[in-house]
Write a structure and sequence with these properties.
Blueprint: H1 2-17, H2 23-40, H3 46-80, H4 83-92, H5 98-116, H6 121-133, H7 137-147, H8 155-168, H9 172-199, H10 209-229, H11 235-253, H12 274-293, H13 299-306, E1 309-312, E2 323-326, H14 331-345, H15 350-363, H16 365-384, H17 386-398, H18 403-417, H19 420-437, H20 442-462, H21 464-474, H22 480-508
Antiparallel strand pairs: 1-2
Helix pairs in contact: 1-2, 1-17, 2-3, 2-16, 3-8, 3-14, 3-15, 3-16, 4-12, 5-6, 5-7, 5-8, 5-9, 5-10, 5-11, 6-7, 6-21, 7-9, 7-21, 7-22, 8-19, 8-20, 9-10, 9-20, 10-11, 12-14, 16-19, 17-19, 18-19, 18-20, 18-22, 19-20, 20-22
Length: about 500
């Protein structure tokens, strides 16, 4: 029976890693397999199987795909208006030291892009920028893969954790706080590791320890604070702003001297005035402001806007609950509003912006199919009882040691699908089911649920999709295996450390 319960997941592993099938095709077939298992051996009626898939599609479209499309649209619009060129110039003017720029662009700005958009932008753009500045292409891709690990848990305006909250029923603030706490030691480690990789040895840390500490704590402290009080939406964005600010400040106070790690000199561009700088960052600033003023910190706005919603009972079988569509106080709507307003103030016409939005949707068409089918698959598996069977088997095999492998399971989900959100959809219920089976308290169940996006961060580094994005960004065709080999060497200690952190934390709850 367990083989049948695992069949959709086993199919995805084979289809994506052995057959190299496109994700949208593999996930569509996985949905058919889940349907077949649910109808054949788990006793689902055709109506309930269809309702489960429909509920998954509803969750995929609102709010997940809405956020993804809005976030990528904002980024594409910044390319269209050339404001991204201004942002790049501002970042690269800080220092000529390769190590500093790798931290500023790969860690700080990469985290910002992950928090705003995710889905490959946080690897492709920083890696391309670093390679353009003279960093060896494979090195640029390698450090960006490391940098893209920990921000993933609350990437794309927190959508992985928001999705996990919708699936497990735990508050997104609790899940975001637990996951960021689990990742804090690795968040502090990443800038040091990136610097060592940049210089090829521990010698590269000479003179850089204050900057690495600033980059780590500058990210960790704002991220945890925002996660605890506001939830996942702005936590990575706050962390990335803190990291970039800390790196710039540290560089101003303790500038790096010497030519050992200096990049080739480039022709100096005209200085950027404050008005131009603010205009370039405006859509991202507006997103931050809109999400902040409609957050729980300002109940006068948050509470009435949250009441503009519709609840619909889609799945009427056992365990089914009404699905709620929040129409205004949802990140996707607010991001779209900020993007259109920011684009207008940057000089883009409505027709131009709509054309960029249309192109964004067309470019994401396969991603849209992938996310709809993978979430529909997870819903069918959950309502049929397949996920519960998998959780029971995992607990039977590991017992009270299950927390040691919770993060590893989350990493497998991201390795398979390339998405922390999809990993949370696949295994979120499994984590809470396993926690219940070993007698965990409510806090313990939430802690293990949070271990899923924590582990997803490690899986992101070795995901074939992420590797392909990195290779495409640096134009190094045929180097996939070299980059994957490097990523695996980082992934293994990361996932082992995550397992230990999750286990220790779980034992204290």
């Amino acid at each position: 029976m367990i083989f049948i319960a695992l069949s959709p997941i086993l199919w995805l592993i084979v289809a994506l890693t052995v057959l190299h099938m496109s994700a949208w095709k593999a996930c569509s077939i996985a949905l058919l397999i889940a349907w077949g298992a649910g109808l054949g051996l788990y006793g689902m009626t055709p109506a309930h199987a269809a309702e489960a898939a429909l509920e998954g599609a509803a969750l995929a479209c609102w709010p997940i795909l809405l956020v993804i499309i809005a976030a990528i649209f904002t980024y594409n619009l910044s390319l269209h208006t050339k404001s991204m060129d201004t942002i790049k110039q501002m970042l690269t003017s800080v220092s000529s030291d390769m190590r500093v720029l790798i931290l500023l662009i790969g860690w700080g700005f990469g985290s910002f892009l992950e928090g705003m958009a995710g889905f490959g932008t946080a690897v492709a753009i920083p890696a391309g920028m670093l390679a353009g500045l003279g960093v060896p292409p494979l090195l640029a891709a390698s450090v960006c893969l490391i940098a893209n690990s920990v921000p993933t848990t609350c990437g794309s305006i927190g959508i992985p954790v928001v999705t996990l909250s919708n699936i497990t029923g735990f508050p997104d603030t609790q899940l975001a706080l637990y996951s960021t706490l689990q990742l804090a030691p690795i968040s502090l480690l990443c800038p040091f590791l990136m610097t060592i990789v940049a210089g090829g040895s521990l010698k590269a840390l000479k003179g850089m320890i204050p900057c690495c500490l600033a980059a780590g704590f500058g990210f960790i402290l704002p991220e945890i604070a925002v996660a605890a009080f506001l939830g996942p939406d702005l936590s990575v964005i706050a962390g990335s702003i803190g990291a970039m600010g800390a790196i710039v400040l540290c560089t101003r106070l303790l500038p790096q001297t010497g030519d050992t790690y200096a990049l080739p000199a480039h022709e100096e561009a005209p200085a950027i005035n404050m008005h131009t700088a603010l205009l370039a960052w405006l859509p991202f600033i507006l997103i931050f402001v809109f999400l902040l003023v409609t957050s729980k910190l300002i109940p006068a706005l948050h509470d009435p806007l949250s009441l503009i919603r519709t609840s619909v009972l889609i799945y009427d079988g056992a365990g089914g609950t009404p699905y709620t569509f929040t129409w205004v106080a949802t990140p996707g709507v607010l991001i779209l509003l900020a993007a259109f307003l920011g684009g207008h103030l940057q000089g883009a016409g409505l027709k131009e912006m709509l054309a960029v939005l249309e192109r964004t949707v067309v470019d994401l068409r396969f991603t849209i199919i992938t996310i709809i089918t993978i979430i529909a698959t997870a819903k069918v598996m959950g309502y049929a009882g397949m996920t519960l069977d998998i959780a029971s088997t995992a607990v039977a095999a590991t017992g009270t040691g299950y927390p040691l492998i919770a993060a590893f399971i989350g990493s497998i989900g991201t390795f398979i699908t390339g998405s922390a959100t999809s990993s949370c959809v696949l295994f979120g219920k499994l984590q809470t089911g396993a926690a219940t089976a070993i007698g965990a308290s409510s806090a313990g169940q939430a802690w293990l649920a949070a271990a899923n996006p924590t582990g997803a961060c490690a899986g992101k580094m070795i995901s074939p999709q992420n590797i392909a994005i990195a290779i495409g960004a640096i134009g190094a065709k045929g180097c996939d295996s070299k980059l994957l080999s490097f990523a695996v060497k980082v992934y293994i200690p990361f996932v082992l450390l995550m397992g230990a952190i999750v286990y220790i934390g779980f034992s204290l709850l």
